[in-house]
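Hi L., both proteins are below.
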Amino acid sequence: MENVLVAAFLCLLVNTPMRAVEIKPVIYLLSGQGSDHRIFNNLNLDRSHEVFHIKYHVPEEGISLKEYAHELSEQIDISKPFILIGMSLGGMLATEITDFLNPEKVIIISSAKCRKELPGRYKFQS
């Protein structure tokens, strides 16, 4: 809302008609286990988007994926529209975050949306 008010004020100053102010969503990137922000280096994103890499920390022992997603989501500015892009474990975390935040889009790469989509060899770990 603040951006619209500033745009309206500027239009009055220069005596031009106001056009809709397009606010580009912030893109939050969630890498996979054992990788970091470099996994997204070859991802060609529109340069007009602000891009932010979610930083992981070592979770407490026994913490659930949902609880960890809540902790990581504190890095997301929900006052602006946002998009989540997650790779592997990051995709599962993005899906969890979607349960309690409202991103415009969620893109998961080489990941599973839920436990049922995991290959059998991974289910023993969860």
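That was the first. Here is the second:
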Amino acid sequence: MEQEQQLQSIFNFSFDDTSREQIKAIGLWARINAILAFIGLAIGIVAFVMAYQNAYSYYSPSMANGFGLAATGVGAFLKLVQVVISIILNVFLYLASGQLKKGVETMDNGQLTKGFASLRTYYKMYGIVLIVMLILLVLLILFLSTYRRVMY
């Protein structure tokens, strides 16, 4: 019986003014981060399109391609993957900011729970993407070091 009351008291959160302000600040910075990420993504897409068009307008068979992956289908595919991942991540971040803001303003535990769940999903997905990229980077380094030894 006493243990049940302790468990109930652990999970019955009450927010004071300081915690409400901190949750509002978390929501505000999450919204700022998501908006800036969308702006950065738009600028990156415009820069990619401009480099892609310039690469083909100045490219001739006798001239070496100085744009690297920008003028290939691989570069376009990699940019598309980056755009999709970034949009998915930032949508979760933006949703979390809105839900946290609504939850604090109305003191609705459901909205707060949804906001924290969206924030948790954002960080999980970000972590998974980061781990996959690190693994791919290590594999690329191993491949290039092996390829270099074979060539020389």
